């Protein structure tokens, strides 16, 4: 249940912001206490706001009781957008960022060194309520604000807390960028099936269903991935033969090590 004492200001109502807005409303948030600021929101978000009674694009100067400001704009637009909402700091709201590559310090420069800021990294499965978000807070965030942030972020999936903001770069490399790795794995599996003699459409169908079903099995069972892998691997069977290739010294693990390291490095570069 998302409980608001003041106004929740959503800055940026695109795919991520729209998914969060939908989650908040489903979670029981009072739409009368939500404001969305976006000069060109997607039609579905605009329709959702109209149906629910969420205020869309009022003058930020009229918002005098901001409790939390959720910033969900693209990083490259941040410096253009933030000056227009810094007046909201008069209410001493929690600043909750879901934007990649923007540090806590960057928000403190706009909202003040005493601002309560949480930086978070969600991922795209949030669009279907299956995301996972890691968050890191500065020293000004109160326990009550931490609870509020967790409630808001959990509307689109799981939430974890990291003790050090520097870990967000590794989080970005694993879960933030991770869906793309899974999608690419699905592409590769389908392509391999086609090379093994399957019609393309059938190979794609088999690969998609296998990846999606395996993920759901892992989620619902709660069993660790290694055990699930072992459970499906018969000694000297077909899976065993394939895993000998994937688990070789030059197999999948070193490739993922390099991929995650590259993504984390790029995350640090974008935040600098």
Descriptive account of the structure:
The protein is α/β, with parallel strands linked by helices. It folds into two domains: 7-169, NAD(P)-binding Rossmann-like Domain (Rossmann fold), CATH 3.40.50.720; 176-271, Orthogonal Bundle (ProC C-terminal domain-like fold). 48% of the residues lie in helices and 14% in strands. The chain is built from eleven helices and eight strands. It has helices at residues 15-26, 43-52, 78-81, 104-111, 143-153, 167-176, 178-195, 200-221, 225-231, 238-246, 252-271; strands spanning 7-11, 34-37, 55-56, 66-71, 94-97, 116-121, 131-137, 157-161. Strand 7, helix 5 and strand 8 form a beta-alpha-beta unit. Helix 6 (167-176) packs across helix 11 (252-271) and helix 7 (178-195) packs across helix 8. The longest helix has 22 residues, at 200-221. The protein is elongated and about 70 Å long. The two termini are 36 Å apart.
Biggest sheet overview: 8 strands, mixed
User: Structural class, from helix and strand content?
Assistant: alpha/beta
- Quickly count the domains: 2
Q: Return the string of H and E elements.
A: EHEHEEHEHEEHEHHHHHH
Provide the CATH top-level class of the largest domain: Alpha Beta
- The helix content, as a percent range, equals 40-55%
Number of strands: 8
CATH superfamily annotation of the largest domain: NAD(P)-binding Rossmann-like Domain
From the alpha-carbon coordinates, what is the Rg to the nearest angstrom? Answer: 21 Å
Shape: elongated
Q: Which blocks of ≥5 consecutive residues have pLDDT under 50?
A: none
The mean pLDDT is 95
What's the CATH architecture name of the largest domain?
Answer: 3-Layer(aba) Sandwich
Number of helices: 11
Please list the strands of the largest sheet in the order they lie side by side: 3-2-1-4-5-6-7-8
Straight-line distance between termini: 36 Å
Oligomer: single chain
Q: Tell me the CATH topology of the largest domain.
A: Rossmann fold
Approximately what portion of the residues adopt beta-strand conformation? 5-15%
């Amino acid at each position: 249940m998302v409980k608001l004492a003041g106004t929740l200001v959503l800055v940026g109502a695109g795919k991520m912001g729209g998914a969060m807005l939908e989650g908040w409303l489903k979670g029981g948030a009072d739409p009368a206490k939500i404001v969305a600021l976006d000069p060109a929101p997607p039609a579905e978000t605009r329709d959702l706001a109209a149906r629910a009674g969420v205020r869309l694009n009022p003058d930020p100067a009229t918002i005098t009781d901001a409790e939390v400001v959720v910033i969900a704009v693209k990083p490259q637009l941040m410096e253009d957008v933030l000056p227009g909402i810094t007046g909201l700091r008069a209410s001493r709201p929690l600043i909750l960022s879901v934007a990649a590559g923007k540090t806590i310090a960057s928000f403190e420069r706009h909202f003040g060194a005493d601002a309560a800021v949480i930086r978070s990294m969600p991922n795209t499965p949030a669009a279907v309520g299956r995301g996972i978000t890691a968050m890191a807070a500065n020293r000004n965030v109160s326990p009550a604000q931490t609870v509020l942030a967790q409630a808001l972020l959990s509307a689109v999936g799981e939430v974890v807390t990291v003790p050090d903001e520097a870990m967000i770069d590794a989080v970005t490399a694993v879960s933030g960028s991770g869906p793309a790795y899974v999608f690419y794995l699905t592409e590769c599996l389908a392509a391999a099936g086609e090379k093994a003699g399957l019609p393309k459409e059938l190979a794609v169908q088999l690969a998609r269903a296998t990846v999606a079903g395996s993920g759901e099995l892992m989620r619902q069972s709660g069993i660790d991935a290694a055990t699930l892998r072992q459970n499906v691997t018969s000694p000297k069977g077909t899976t065993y033969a394939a895993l000998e290739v994937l688990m070789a010294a030059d197999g999948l693990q070193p490739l993922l090590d390099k991929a995650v390291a590259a993504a984390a490095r790029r995350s640090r570069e974008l935040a600098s």
